[in-house]
């Protein structure tokens, strides 16, 4: 797998990726986002590009809270399926979010939704299953952008609670 740093990426000016890079630097995050040579729109693609287990990919799943049209972000382990009933029990009734809702609420396109730096602050939950790993990788605002983070760092960066939000393995 080849990657480049943010200063040499042919797409380093992509605003969402640049925004996540700046935000992480400002937060003192120790790992600079990486630009992959191939897009990683799915957990499987990201895991293959990084040489990791699928569970080490911290996927961002967006739902629409029915009561107030707020985005609900669930950051879940890539090898687990989000349990919508468990999420709804914590945040209220939810529904699926289409691509235009995701873009409008987060500022990111599906396949590159970072867990930080959203256009409008979402209600965020972190899947406890991420803590099976010392470090995970999350999207950095673009399908080619990813960043390394420990689950504890992710919890700190987002300020989100850790919860049981996935279906049993």
Describe what you observe in this structure.
The protein has five helices and nine strands. It is globular. Helices cover 26% and strands 24% of the residues. Strands 1, 2, 3, 4, 5, 6, 7, 8 and 9 form a nine-stranded mixed sheet that branches. With 169 residues, it is of the alpha/beta class. The longest helix has 12 residues, at 15-26.
Number of helices: 5
Largest sheet: 9 strands, mixed
Q: State mean pLDDT (0 to 100 scale).
A: 92
List low-pLDDT spans.
1-13
Total number of strands? 9
Question: Outline, from the CA principal axes?
Answer: globular
**Element string (H = helix, E = strand):** EHEHEEHEHEEEHE
Structural classification: alpha/beta
Distance between the termini: 29 Å
- Whole-number radius of gyration? 15 Å
Strand content: 15-25%
Q: What is the share of helical residues?
A: 25-40%
């Amino acid at each position: 797998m080849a990657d480049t740093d943010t200063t040499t990426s042919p797409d380093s000016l992509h605003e969402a990726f640049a925004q996540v890079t700046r935000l992480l630097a400002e937060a003192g995050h120790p790992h600079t986002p990486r630009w992959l040579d191939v897009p990683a729109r799915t957990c499987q693609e990201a895991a293959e590009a990084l040489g990791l287990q699928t569970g080490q990919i911290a996927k961002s799943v967006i739902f629409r809270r029915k009561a107030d049209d707020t985005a609900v972000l669930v950051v879940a382990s890539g090898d687990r399926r989000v349990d919508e009933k468990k999420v709804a029990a914590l945040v209220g009734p939810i529904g699926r979010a289409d691509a235009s809702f995701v873009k409008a609420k987060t500022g990111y396109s599906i396949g590159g939704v970072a867990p930080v730096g959203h256009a409008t602050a979402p209600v965020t939950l972190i899947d406890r299953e991420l803590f099976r790993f010392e470090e995970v990788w999350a999207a950095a605002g673009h399908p080619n952008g990813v960043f390394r983070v420990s689950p504890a760092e992710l919890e700190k960066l987002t300020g989100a609670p850790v919860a049981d939000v996935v279906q049993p393995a």
